[in-house]
């Protein structure tokens, strides 16, 4: 709908335009991670029997760095996921985001649902394990400092990857489906950080609290936070449901960076100090 501004004097109109620009700039600055020029590139390599493809983003500086596997939402390996990988790389990590849809990206919910429904869990896990193996094999990665992060569908697979690989030290879940199998929960050796929305129903706050209690009962390092007023996919400014929450997204990202810094950069290797 077109809106007509009421007639105003030059000074008043200039002041309004300046105020609008300042609000826009402030809102943009509050978005974390900030959009960065893509420093990474498309990656393809045979890893065992798996043809591994995805997006690889590298930090600046020589030497070795911790490695992180970044797992896409149900939309696919889109520009938003690549921006998250680039932001993590800018903080000193070698980041590999596997492409679970073989080059396809969804721009509507129906297509995203079809692509996600077409995944076979065993095949996905094989791809993710191949991604971890690749990071461990790289000369610029500290093999004993590997983490994983995932959003939505990727959050579900992130915690399952941590349960299947005892060498993963840190796992970040953004509103992903929790583990319910006690055996899988016992297998998790990574510290786990979770960022969830109080208005989300997939997973619901009750499911999140139950999962947190199960992790604590199994004596696993866990730090979950449920954000009031936030729903599913609150961290993604492109959320088509309009559920983006800048303040919650900013806080969750700062928690994520501090967590990876503590678990992957500062922790002594190869063992973990309690």
TrEMBL record:
Keywords for the protein's UniProt record, in alphabetical order: Hydrolase, Signal
One annotated GO molecular function: hydrolase activity
Top-level taxon: Bacteria
Domain Dienelactone hydrolase: 53-262
Pfam families: DLH (PF01738)
Keyword match Hydrolase: yes
Signal sequence extent: 1-29
PANTHER family: ALPHA_BETA-HYDROLASES SUPERFAMILY PROTEIN, CARBOXYMETHYLENEBUTENOLIDASE-RELATED
Descriptive protein name: Dienelactone hydrolase family protein
Organism: Eiseniibacteriota bacterium
């Amino acid at each position: 709908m077109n809106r007509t501004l009421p007639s105003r004097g030059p000074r008043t109109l200039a002041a309004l335009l300046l105020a609008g620009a300042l609000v826009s700039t402030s809102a943009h600055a509050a978005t974390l991670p900030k959009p960065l020029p893509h420093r990474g590139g498309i990656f393809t390599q045979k890893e065992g029997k798996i043809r591994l493809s995805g997006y690889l983003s590298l930090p600046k500086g020589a030497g070795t760095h911790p490695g992180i596997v970044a797992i896409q939402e149900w939309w696919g390996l889109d520009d938003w996921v690549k921006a998250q990988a680039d932001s993590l790389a800018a903080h000193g990590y070698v980041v590999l985001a596997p492409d679970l849809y073989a080059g396809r990206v969804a721009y509507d919910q129906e297509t995203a649902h079809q692509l996600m429904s077409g995944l076979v869990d065993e095949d996905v896990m094989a791809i993710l394990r191949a991604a971890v193996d690749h990071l461990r094999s790289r000369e610029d990665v500290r093999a004993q400092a590997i983490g994983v992060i995932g959003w939505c569908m990727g959050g579900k697979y992130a915690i399952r990857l941590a349960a299947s690989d005892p060498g993963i030290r840190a796992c970040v879940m953004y509103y992903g489906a929790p583990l319910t199998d006690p055996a899988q929960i016992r297998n998790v050796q990574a510290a786990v950080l979770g960022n969830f929305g109080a208005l989300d129903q997939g997973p619901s706050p009750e499911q999140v609290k139950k999962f947190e209690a199960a992790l604590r009962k199994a004596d696993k390092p866990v730090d979950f936070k449920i954000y009031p007023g936030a729903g599913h996919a609150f961290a993604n400014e492109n959320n088509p449901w309009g559920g983006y929450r800048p303040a919650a997204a900013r806080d969750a990202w700062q928690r994520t960076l501090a967590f990876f810094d503590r678990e992957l950069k500062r922790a002594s290797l190869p063992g973990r100090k309690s």
